[in-house]
Amino acid sequence: MRKFTHGSLALLCLCFYLNSAVSQNPPARTVHVFVALADNEHQGIVPVPPRLGNGLDPARNLYWGAAAGVRTFFARSSDWALLSCVQKPKPEILERCVFKHRRAEVYLVADAYRGDEIRQAIFDFFDAAAGASPERIALPASPAGTLTVRGGSNLVAYVGHDGLMDFQLPLVPRKKNDIHRDAIILACASKQYFGDALRTAGAYPLLWTTNLMAPEAYTLKSALDGWIAGETNEHIRERTAVAYDKYQKCGLRGARRLFVTGW
């Protein structure tokens, strides 16, 4: 009887330990970023220098490989570690990079879409915002093993030209489940042009814009810093405005008018 009591007590202690370990190690959160490479030829953008506006050259593209592009800016950040970059995981995606936050269980997957595939990039963003098409990807040499991205992400972001100024999507994905999912849309006047489709998709607009802007990665990183830290939406908006003014020298008042949160 004494052995049974001691064994039961040991088992209870083990269960308590395991439950405590789980509670202290919450599951990883994922961010999926859809980047439409700047493209002078196929997008209605104000032309940029040819080496920055070649939608088939991610290494030098304004929104990807340039100093303030998503891949370069996050790779150089002391807050993020670059885990891998894969070339052409899909025909429309020229490069996929995976980052891990150095102090939080947050992974960021960024896809560089061909400039002439901007329509597909925007559709895929809304598809993920709706919670559709979850995708499992492997993380070699990482404790996490695999990640669920696209529709399985906690936050989805679009970075690039506001293609909805130039075309309409024939189909807008509808919300697939009741899971809360945040969205960031860094494109010119994204609240005006992306609003109806985002309502249909069902994601919450954590951050979007009211006017013309440069969709560069310092804005995205600043917003993610606040999101990872659990800040309020208004604090995230404020820190984003401060970062944008720092790089663009547009004045803090103007930056505050540019970025909005919520409906």
Structure report:
- The protein has one domain.
- About 6% of the residues have low confidence.
- The strands form 2 sheets. It has an 8-stranded mixed sheet with strand order 2-3-4-1-7-8-9-10, with helices on both faces.
- The chain has 7 helices and 10 strands.
- It is an alpha/beta fold and 263 residues long.
SSE blueprint:
Layout: H1 2-24, E1 29-36, H2 70-76, E2 80-90, E3 93-101, E4 106-113, H3 118-129, E5 134-138, E6 146-150, E7 155-159, E8 182-186, H4 190-201, E9 204-209, H5 217-228, H6 233-248, H7 252-258, E10 259-260
Parallel strand pairs: 1-4, 1-7, 7-8, 8-9
Antiparallel strand pairs: 2-3, 3-4, 5-6, 9-10
Features:
263 residues; 7 helices; alpha/beta; globular; single chain; eight-stranded mixed sheet
Q: In a nutshell, what does this entry contain?
A:
The chain has 263 residues and is of the alpha/beta class. It is 34% helix and 24% strand. It has helices at residues 2-24, 70-76, 118-129, 190-201, 217-228, 233-248, 252-258, and strands at residues 29-36, 80-90, 93-101, 106-113, 134-138, 146-150, 155-159, 182-186, 204-209, 259-260.
Q: Provide the residue-averaged pLDDT.
A: 91
Overall strand count? 10
Number of helical runs? 7
Order of strands in the sheet with most strands: 2-3-4-1-7-8-9-10
Helix content: 25-40%
Computed over alpha carbons, the radius of gyration is 20 Å
Largest sheet: 8 strands, mixed
Class from helix and strand fractions:
alpha/beta
Poorly predicted runs are 8-23
